[in-house]
Amino acid sequence: MLDATPLLRAYAHVRRRGRARRSPVATQADTLRRLLARAAHTRFGRDHGFAAIRTVAEFQRAVPLRSYEDFRRDYFAATFPVLDDVTWPGRIPFFAVSSGTTSGRTKHLPVSRDMVRSNTRAGLDVLADHVLRHPGSDVLSGKNFMLGGSVAMEDLGGGVRSGDLSAIARLTTPRWAAPYAFPDLADALDADWEAKIDRLARLSLDAPIRSIAGTPSWLLLFFERLAALSGGVRNLRRIYPRLELMVYGGMSFAPYRALFAEWVPPGAVDWREVYAASEGFVASADRGIDDGMRLNLDIGLFYEFVPIAEWDAPNPARYVVGTAPPGEYGLVLSTCAGLFAYRLGDVVELLEGDPPRVRVTGRTSYYLSAFGEHVSGQELELAVLAAAGALGVGIAEFAVTPLYPHAGHGRGRHLFVVELSRLPRPGERETFAQVVDRTLKAGNEDYEVHRRGDVQLQEPDVALVPPGAFAAWMRARGKLGGQNKVPRVVNAGEVRDSLLEFAHESRV
């Protein structure tokens, strides 16, 4: 196999110089102008007067914030799956299937040819940043393993197909990159997740794996399968001796970090977080593990930042790169696939510095406020990690749901369903609940007020479930593998009913 790393390294230096020459503000202003010009003659562009818009302020006055449901109802539903010149010029060839993690409702998100090129460029930047940081890298001398969903796509008619975002990425891999991709297309077709990871684990043991990428929770399950096939070896560098890069994303990494360190120490392998949403490849890490991710400013994505406290307001403030101070925001995207002023639903922390960097801290729907306590997803995560630290154990998965008052129980409480990295021990459930409660009180005044005297809100309930339990729950729901994720906060609906039943049957 030809080692293409020298070519990658040359590209990386050119790319770095090109980014350094332009300011983030100018780059984003140019991106918006290009998006508006491309979509000016679409139905959406005509409806919103794109041809006459010259500034960010004019764009924000003309284009209100919209959710996926707004786009589906007003622009997609009438002719779906064929969208010709609706919100983006030409026909949309792909739809990335994404289910809302709290509601379970399936979304079909447009992926244009321009978006395919955007995602490819962002993915190449991840490798470029890696070789810049590690001059001795030979990452393109072997195989780069993407652990995604099945590449089988559904034919929707009219030349339009839908499937997992990782499937679209694999099917549209540039010809030059195909020899360096693992698995081969034929081996990536299996839709049965458990059969697939077994097959891929066996095949990968004989492959020259240089990098591995995927969602943290599913990577850990895959590592367990590798260990079973390798005589109990629990060190990826012993299983893949030339492994040099691990790429992860799709959810907060904090709950999984300690477990990953057991498999692949960060000093031995370069860890890189990416923020690759179905709507666009937003950001990737170009520095250390805790330094946030650099926003992708020049790949056809325009960013707006809505203060999280105003997310549900009728006319919230809409900041952009250059005007948004550091802080926590709901992220809004305009993309080269025809989403404009689109409420992504992710909460990001915008960090101080140039170029702009972000950390993903949760989802706008990941707020627990069934009783007016206003607990954020990040606060819940910190509390769970503190409790795990008190027990000296890792967290495999967790989910939280409110327990509402009912006959005989006039106060509400929160149920934390938690899978530890080992079987629970006597007394740990009580300790876990106490530390979670204490941490939330210390970090959230609303929660502390509601907990005073157990009058409005009782101490949390905790259901500790055995290792592998969440995977079994996801399998039973048909959500095992790929880009499916365990929902962190479940406030209502069928998913909550299923979670409560799971907790009742699985707690130990």
Please provide a written account of the structure.
This protein is of the alpha/beta class and 508 residues long. It folds into three domains: 20-84 and 301-363, no CATH class; 114-284, Rossmann fold (3-Layer(aba) Sandwich); 367-506, GMP Synthetase, Chain A, domain 3. The chain contains 16 helices and 21 strands. It has helices spanning 5-21, 24-39, 43-47, 56-62, 68-76, 113-133, 165-171, 193-204, 216-229, 236-239, 257-263, 377-391, 428-443, 445-451, 469-476, 493-506, and strands at residues 94-99, 106-111, 143-146, 154-157, 160-163, 181-182, 209-214, 245-249, 270-277, 280-284, 293-295, 301-307, 319-320, 327-335, 342-351, 357-363, 367-368, 375-376, 395-403, 413-420, 461-465. The strands form four sheets. Strands 6-3-7-8-9-10-11-16-15-14-12-13 form a twelve-stranded mixed sheet, with helices on both faces. It has a four-stranded mixed sheet with strand order 2-1-5-4. A three-stranded mixed sheet has the order 19-20-21, with helices on both faces. Helix 11 (257-263) links the parallel strand 8 (245-249) and strand 9. The chain is globular. The termini are far apart.
